[in-house]
From TrEMBL, chains A, B, C, D, E, F, G, H:
It holds the Pfam family AIRC. This is 1-(5-phosphoribosyl)-5-amino-4-imidazole-carboxylate carboxylase. GO terms for biological process: 'de novo' IMP biosynthetic process. It comes from the Bacteria. Residues 120-249 form the PurE domain. Transmembrane segments: none annotated. GO terms for molecular function: hydrolase activity.
Length: 250, 250, 250, 250, 250, 250, 250, 250
């Protein structure tokens, strides 16, 4: 479809030899118009108020404020990750509609239109207390998307009974986010017990050969339990977003 | 709960000082009984006929035959991956109910009870022809689970228009499996276009710094597109299973 | 064993058609009850006063105080690793029963009941002065478990004679903890000389290609001396605990 | 050679009952004279008949035969690892006293003097069927040392109940060897349940990001369960030897 | 731009309230139509007859034949890399218009229309004889694009004088492709001498710590000589294509 | 110094018009006499005023001032990278002719003679705001060389339309510098759209498995789009220099 | 302690001129008596006044002072590396006989007995100004050993003529220490030009894919120039010591 | 070619005893004329008959024959590494003056002129039988250079007494080549005992985490024993050459 054929098509419409409806059909089949569904999908995301994430680290308070305002104006929920308290306070003095969450160092704002509720419950499970900031980032993300979230925290080798005592909560899940550092075995254990998708989030918690989360990541990728997939190290947003997406299916 | 307290509880029941119903409630709250839901879930998996995968590489034809029969007897669909043609023929001579799929080197058998159909369509997208064996393993897995599967193959940088021309197929997806080697950029592109979960499967296709799929894996983990998660390199089964699981939600 | 069969069993006891003793035997054979030995073992650990370790790094003084108190109340010895002096002082102002060990940055408290003494001597050997904090963490751990500990420090290539001059001490060992950074060759040398288990602890001491302890770790894993095994880099607790465990066998 | 015997030798020289030349020859034959205890230990190992391992890969049948004969003549049990069947047959035609173990590709011969029995039971646990050759190498090693060995095989995420049903066996263990590839989570699970030393043996079983056993190794090193240590990838001999050593303590 | 606004625009054209020319301008500014230039560029590539590369490894002779025919029919030159002689002969029996180049294991066919000649000379320099297959792949690629190519081969540390004796050739270059394995220092040396772009191609030639070309790659990336950039290990096509592209500029 | 001039010099000696001593001095002043072309090229670079880069990190203000003055005196443009504001101010108090660019932490000075203008436009494209310092270093470099530079910034997955809207700018490019961190997919996308050389600059922007830019680097090296090459992580100077070099060809 | 002196000692005992007890004491003070040659070598080192290095990083001023005094008392030259100025000043206030070298952050003291002069000249060559601290550590080490040292600094790709102009110095070398970061190509270039041993010292100078000196290290190890060997990253002492050792041979 | 001989040549031209044309020819045969010292060194190498190594792997018998003949004609000893028996036989049928060494898979030929003898003895030490091919390559290289070589083989942890019993041999060494795989600790031990340069050669012998020799390499680089340097993995030639070079100093 070059300029000539495009002009020719429009001239046929102008000449009446081609109905607008027919022209539209032909245009929709063109290269690049062929990505049409993408745009529509994008609109759908905005309508639903799904959050757009802003990676706050390395951005100035002014940049954060400006991008947040722009996104919110487009109808999206806003989520800014990795904002320390000092930077957050500067942002809030300019843009007090944002809420600061010190437990995961995030700023957030709901979309103007309340999000469509999810179908079930997103269950966020964390292995240790050091994994909580990442887990809370997942919680906040899924809640901004409209999902109901339950948490089961501090479930290590010596705390597997917490999983058991949370059986009722676990049974209602539509998706799981399992956050763990060190050897990263918890998502395997969970995926062996349940029959809903498990999103594993490795964390950089650990020392020595944990290599900043690499050991946990490899443990999760090599899990022999099906139904488990992995996002980037410390990517709580990614885990929460995917679980929220699954929770809104159907 | 040691033997003594367990015996004491049973004696209270025997003595009539504790109702069976009450005793059962107390027993259900005990450590390890608390994993009850897991067993139930496991049964649910078997009832649905979801496949149990057998990693065929390194197993003898006799082992494959025996494990396959046992799994099928339990009501599960059977999937044996990484079986070369010679080994497959030996297995088939003993167990002709299995079907061999040379395009992904798998043996399979449906569960006795037909699987519950999925809710939508699992779309499996592959970047290059060399990625097809992994992609076909994903297709086979999801189909054994009862999902309807559509494929969009050979979608590299010079083939993005194939994605576009498949727009109608793509719009109906409940989940995507995107299979790619080399730099592994395709899942990022797909996840930027759609609003359903994308399961990325890196493949070991490539040379030089692809390092057996590591480059593709890192590319996928670092994607800035939300809604994307990753399974192990060449793990077509893992990708298909997760997509099938998502397709059966709700 | 689902709820129904459990209730049925209890009703048989209530009806007198099943003796409590028989019911107990049947319950003990059930799935998940079948992990019974684990619980007992766990109790055994507590009764012995073996320490539960708290990774102090990244925890607040309040968290450390609370977890320490809870563990001690359960009868365990308490060991908190990676606590700098400032944090330690805050904890001690609240919980003065803990002792601070500046040489390994640990807090500790013996169990209420004195630990059962070990069978022999745990010998902790360190290659250089920079390895001492890790070695002292091992010493403290084994002592909290009730083991007698001897140390042989500063045994590098130019100090192998210290090993020789410590021959009498070395002969009485039930287990060795050998702590080394750099090329990590010392555990191989020790394991070639002795006939008791050697637990090798690589440290992050070194520069350049030591890669934070990786060189030492690989050196230890590739040792051709049998009777040697390895724990994580800088994991003095892990080394001391395993040696203490071996020292309490029999 | 301790201080007493050194003094005695010098007194014999002083008394004229030993020529200086003879004394010098005796002193020169004591290779580890200054390390005294080491030589004694070495002798002790030989007296006990503990096996000396020969890494068979890359050695000719003639080399294997010669070294085996020499070791056996010294009173040691013989263990040759990584010998394929063809090479084994050539060796056996020359040295029929060796026994070939096709399940772990090893040749072995008991020491002339039967080994001193161990104190308890070495329990060897393997995650999957592909891990069996490594596990069997551990079994063979511990048995040559005189330990009683029990095995619990095929214990993956979907097979944890096998652990449970083996509770009685597990309770009698003096040491555990846990063999696993993939994500290597099994040793962590076992170490969380028991209170005896766990020797973890990662295997090169897996694909993709298992990186020839690296993922399993890292998983084991980063385990938060105390009482666990690790040997080299696929090092069944190392695992069995250490467990056998522990089983002979006290 | 959704379907409604597109239809509206076309109706305005039909109604005469909007000139076809104006409508075309508005359409050209739309999302995705806005990638128009890309399509044009792509056409430009085809018109020039620049080669499309087919990675031959892992493709059947039938696939290679089919794709080659299709590309040639579109006006592109054809280049199939990594084709061993046996496979090449099967392809040639079906498609004899292709030429086989055993020195770089490639099949090629010029575009129907002779390529536009380049502006200068592409100089391909190789460090050792083992690097020649990769270098020849670069030569073939640049020649298919219409560039004049000169080669300077076997220029290692002991052969730098070859560079000097080739000074006249080197002075005429518009771009350099420098191919080297081992420590990969040659591109740095060349880039320090010349003032035209240097495309460095690391090869997997070497042993030990060359790690399949990684050492060469890192050496090239860390070069302190400006004007040098790097393509993937063994990627002769990539090097030749980029040099050919530069040679056709202006 | 080619064969002719060498012969001429010797003939002058033979003819007595040049003293042997003088001839020797002239021969000794030609450091690269045998490499002839190199010296000439080097002079050519200086005549054009192409910048010499000074890596400012780890250098004192005095060193920076001295080297800058020396380079400028030789006729080169000056570019000092990685200079924080405090150090810059100290340098500027001594050498106020330098200009400080806080957006890329560089100091620069044009050559005395204005640089020869380039042939087209260097287009610098950056994926995210965090990539800007590296991108700006590329911009500054190319401008010092005399190239006209256009920038297209903030082009991530959700910003590909910015590429589209910049179509006119993109069409005039003689070379592209594409700067990206995270998964580093943007250069592949650009190279798939255009037909001029693309210099990819990976940045250390990202977290978790980005491994300080390694993921981006591997993504770029494994790109299946031809016409793309890579420089070191965060090496904006290298990218800008190469693009400027290409822009001055012909 | 060689065979002769051992025999002599025993003869003294036999002759009654030495008590057995005294002989035993003398024998026990010879740490490596059984390894004879080793002790002698060690003594030889001390006699020559070769320096013992103390890794100053992580040691207290008190520890540095104590170890330095002890070494000097034994007749060794003293070299303390990695001492920042503040720590150095504290040490010097206690032990003013040490000299501080701010260019390489070392403290040193000559042995009481002046060192035996070397045979030739140690030439230390450094690629860039950032490599100077490592190079100066090598210079200081070799000088303490008694070697004459010459330096050729700032020899990068654009400074190879410095090598040439230093030809006379280079010709007198008995050994070379070549210090380089980045791609580490300089030692290869030097080793290609000279016929004396070249000790390559990679430095952690660089950024991006230099990976803390790994790229330089790999470049040096993969050099195709014979006569070159490598020490650890930033190990100036190791390079200087080895060169000094070679310079004292014969 | 030093300044004197250059001046002399020019004076001959000035005196008419040498034609300019002849002088030019002589100057052109001096490849590194401008680097003066280098050429001389190179000639010295040839005069001494030091071997030029040919990496035989990947070269055809014809290439090996041709290069060997050319080198020998120049007066160098010839050494071809990595030649399997079949290839060797083809070469030998053409060039029977070469000798084949099956223990290290090398072909060699002495220089026409017998090499100048070394000053002492090169001692080559190997840890295990699997390291012998690499060790023998070192032996052959040093012998071709004229050095007297002694070997001490099979010196592992359980064989350190072999070192001791070889004390006399060790005392005469001018340089050591120590070859080891696995954890690579042997060179550290040797360097701790002796006072001559130790060239460490890591081998790819080992399994699991030996990572093809990487563990041994890191162990050697991180050795705290001074006087030790390292060459590439399996580079027996490199080790032997450097030791031979040292042995010829003075």
């Amino acid at each position: 479809m070059n300029s000539d054929s495009l002009k020719q098509l429009l001239e046929q419409v102008a000449a009446g030899s081609l109905e607008p409806e027919q022209a539209m059909q032909r245009l929709k089949k063109l290269p690049y118009e062929d990505l049409g569904f993408a745009r529509v999908d994008h609109h759908r995301v905005l309508r639903r108020g799904f959050p757009e994430v802003i990676f706050g680290q390395g951005k100035t308070p002014e940049q954060i404020t400006a991008i947040s305002r722009a996104l919110h104006a487009q109808g999206a929920a806003v989520l800014v990750t990795r904002v320390d308290r000092a930077k957050a306070e500067t942002v809030l003095s300019e843009y007090p509609e944002l809420a600061y969450h010190p437990d995961c160092a995030c700023l957030s704002q709901l979309a103007a239109e309340p999000p469509r509720p999810g179908k079930g419950t997103v269950v966020v499970i964390a292995a240790g207390t050091s994994d909580l900031p990442v887990a809370q980032e997942a919680v906040l993300t899924a809640e901004l998307m409209g999902s109901k979230v339950e948490t089961v925290y501090d479930v290590g080798v010596s705390g597997l009974h917490r999983l058991a005592s949370a059986a009722e909560v676990l049974m209602q899940a539509s998706a799981y986010v399992v956050v763990a550092g060190m050897e990263g075995a918890l998502p395997s254990v969970v995926a062996g017990l349940v029959d809903k998708p498990v999103v594993a989030v490795p964390t950089s918690v650990g020392y020595g050969t944990s290599f900043g989360g690499l050991a946990a990541l490899l443990g999760m990728l090599n899990s022999c339990a099906p139904g488990l997939s992995v996002v980037n190290i410390d990517n709580g947003f990614g885990g929460g977003y995917l679980a929220g997406l699954i929770d809104h299916l159907g």
